[in-house]
Task: inverse folding
């Protein structure tokens, strides 16, 4: 059993979009917009019990999504046509064996009987203008383990110079494999995730915290029990933030929790949205956040609307 696990990605990007990479279409390199790469190469680091494993993977442009403004309206060009942003995602899902550091393409064949702790990545995708998130599941075999991970998102393209609306969300499912109960407890921070918005001077402008402790004692004779976690978020009431003078440039999401062992699994989906607001920058208070996200299944499958061209 691994007591402490840390998965710190130097540049993991994602967005909560329905579907998978296999359902989208790659865009020919000659058709890419100026300044948008054909693919983004990522490096990952897994650290457990003093051992460190590094691995790499690639996300690529699989399609386009309609750009929306701060009020949720589709952005139109001068001719009245929708403006599209590139949608990047994993070419292939993969998982990391958290006891050996082995990286395996595809999904764990029999998650109930895997016998080892792992992190499964089904979607690490991005819109660079700028939305992002993650779709990841963890398995905690043996005794209770600590999981921590940081998603470091790339710089916005373009950045946001003035006011912006900043929103985030978290939801998921907890799966009790043996019927002795399942729990999730934030560790290393007040909540399960902290979404940090940085300016271009690498200073944190604002932080959103989502995810509380949840402990469920399963008295049912059927051990295979799935329980909803969340939803948490402020997508109905985004936080108004001041990006001046340096401009808002990127986001990091810190995830950390303690599981309950016994083969229990955790499917988590989280994400953020930063939208520029017209008008001069001003000093603004931080309102409270409200939960607003649709429920998700066991593996944390996301459900945001999109349109692929």
Result:
């Amino acid at each position: 059993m691994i007591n402490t696990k840390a998965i710190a990605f130097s540049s993991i990007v994602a967005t909560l979009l329905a579907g998978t990479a296999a359902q989208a279409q790659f865009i020919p390199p000659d058709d890419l917009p100026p300044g948008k790469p054909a693919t983004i190469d990522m490096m990952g680091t897994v650290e457990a019990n003093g051992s460190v494993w590094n691995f790499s993977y690639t996300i690529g442009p699989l399609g386009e999504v309609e750009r929306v403004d701060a009020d949720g309206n589709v952005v139109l060009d001068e001719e009245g046509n929708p403006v599209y942003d590139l949608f990047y995602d994993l070419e292939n899902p993969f998982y990391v064996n958290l006891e050996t550091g082995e990286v395996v393409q595809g999904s764990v064949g029999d998650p109930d009987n895997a016998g080892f702790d792992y992190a499964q990545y089904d979607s690490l995708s991005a819109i660079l203008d700028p939305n992002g998130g993650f779709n990841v599941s963890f398995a905690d075999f043996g005794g209770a383990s600590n999981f921590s991970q940081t998603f470091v998102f790339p710089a916005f393209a373009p950045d946001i110079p003035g006011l912006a609306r900043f929103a985030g969300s978290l939801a998921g499912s907890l799966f009790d494999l043996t019927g002795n109960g399942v729990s999730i407890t934030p560790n290393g921070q007040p909540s399960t995730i902290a979404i940090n918005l940085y300016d271009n001077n690498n200073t944190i402008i604002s932080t959103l915290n989502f995810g509380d402790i949840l402990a469920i004692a399963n008295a049912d004779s059927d051990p295979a029990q799935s329980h909803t976690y969340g939803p948490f978020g402020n997508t109905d009431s985004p936080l108004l933030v001041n990006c001046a003078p340096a401009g808002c440039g990127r986001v990091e999401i810190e995830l950390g929790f303690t599981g309950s062992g016994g083969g229990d699994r955790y499917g988590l989906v989280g994400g953020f949205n930063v939208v520029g607001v017209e008008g001069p920058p001003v000093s603004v208070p931080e309102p409270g956040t409200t939960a607003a996200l649709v429920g998700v299944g066991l593996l944390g499958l996301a459900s945001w609307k999109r349109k692929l061209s």
In short: Residues 129 and 208 are 19 Å apart (CA to CA). Residues 1-24, 280-309 have pLDDT under 50 and may be disordered. DSSP finds no helices and 19 strands in the chain. The first strand starts at residue 4 and ends at 9.
